[in-house]
């Protein structure tokens, strides 16, 4: 049992090396007053502030600019097989296509991704890019596909330019035909695709060579098959077509398509 001296030492706290200036005084509470009003007649006064709801974190969106500027110089890494999400394998990545004038797809997708990122960021969306520049190798398609789930994304948007026959043009939006993450995510992917299709039709016709009304479903794209979150690839236009390649090679054209991509994503997010 603690004596009075020990109790006072505890109350005065740290005392290493100090010299006390006087006796320690301990405040003693007064006894309860018998004149206090009975609590039953005094309603409690609410003094606590109203509860506040913490601000919701911004939604996260992954933008995946297709291919990479260093891929062509690193065939061994780029051709290494990785899981395709359909029970097989496919190359880690590819070089992508280019316009006949030599403007490469990887540069197009990188520039459009940066423009779209800036627009979404300004609208309060947290954007994660699947690559950090246009001079590296990869990442492999399986890593791209896993990224949305890893960062808790509300949506994953792969950005590409197609390399189809020169006489064909238009954009299309692709979803996985395997519905890899279940019916709910598949439905959300289709909703994302429709929002993007509806937005893009303001600046580019739907494809005249693949899909239906600008929408297509495929089972061979690892980036979609391996996504745990709503995911699409957008083939923004045909880089081998003279009309499409003209706007795809133009900063104004890329800004216009980025504005439509951002609008489609924001519509999907309900913002
Ligand atoms: Zn591509």
Helix-strand layout with pairing:
Blueprint: H1 4-12, E1 60-65, H2 75-79, E2 81-83, E3 89-91, H3 105-122, E4 126-129, H4 141-150, E5 155-162, E6 172-176, H5 183-200, E7 215-218, H6 222-225, E8 231-238, H7 242-248, H8 251-269
Parallel strand pairs: 1-4, 1-5, 5-8, 6-7
Antiparallel strand pairs: 2-3, 6-8
The structure holds zinc ion.
What do these coordinates show?
The chain is of the alpha/beta class and 271 residues long. The protein has a single domain (61-269), classed as Aminopeptidase (3-Layer(aba) Sandwich). Helices cover 33% and strands 15% of the residues. The protein contains eight helices and eight strands. It has helices spanning 4-12, 75-79, 105-122, 141-150, 183-200, 222-225, 242-248, 251-269; strands at residues 60-65, 81-83, 89-91, 126-129, 155-162, 172-176, 215-218, 231-238. The strands form two sheets. Strands 4-1-5-8-6-7 form a six-stranded mixed β-sheet, with helices on both faces. A two-stranded antiparallel ribbon has the order 2-3. α5 (183-200) links the parallel β6 and β7. α3 (105-122) crosses α8 and α5 packs across α8. The protein is globular. The chain starts with a helix and ends with a helix. Residues 1-40 have low confidence and may be disordered. The structure holds zinc ion. The site of zinc ion has 5 residues, from loops.
């Amino acid at each position: 049992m603690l004596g009075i001296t020990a109790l006072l030492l505890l109350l005065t706290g740290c005392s290493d090396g100090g010299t006390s200036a006087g006796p320690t005084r301990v405040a003693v509470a007064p006894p309860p007053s018998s004149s206090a009003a009975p609590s039953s007649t005094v309603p409690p006064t609410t003094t606590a502030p109203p509860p506040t709801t913490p601000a919701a974190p911004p939604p996260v969106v992954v933008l995946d600019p297709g291919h990479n500027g260093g891929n062509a110089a690193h065939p061994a890494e780029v051709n290494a097989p990785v899981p395709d999400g359909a029970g097989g394998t496919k190359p880690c990545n590819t070089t992508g296509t280019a316009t006949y004038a030599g403007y490469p797809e990887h540069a197009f997708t990188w520039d459009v991704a940066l423009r779209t990122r800036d627009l979404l960021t300004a609208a309060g969306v947290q954007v994660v890019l699947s690559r950090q520049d246009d001079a590296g190798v990869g990442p492999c398609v399986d890593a791209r596909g896993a990224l949305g789930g890893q960062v808790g994304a509300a949506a994953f948007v792969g950005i590409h330019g197609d390399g189809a026959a020169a006489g064909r043009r238009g954009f299309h939006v692709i979803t996985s035909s395997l519905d890899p993450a279940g019916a709910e995510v598949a439905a959300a992917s289709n909703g994302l695709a429709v929002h993007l299709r509806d937005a893009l039709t303001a600046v580019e016709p739907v494809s005249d060579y693949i899909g239906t009304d600008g929408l297509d479903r495929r089972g061979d794209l690892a980036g979609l098959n391996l996504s745990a979150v709503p995911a699409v690839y957008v083939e923004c236009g045909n880089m081998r077509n003279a009309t499409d390649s003209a706007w795809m090679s133009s900063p104004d054209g890329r800004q216009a398509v980025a504005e439509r991509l951002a609008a489609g994503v924001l519509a999907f997010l309900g913002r």
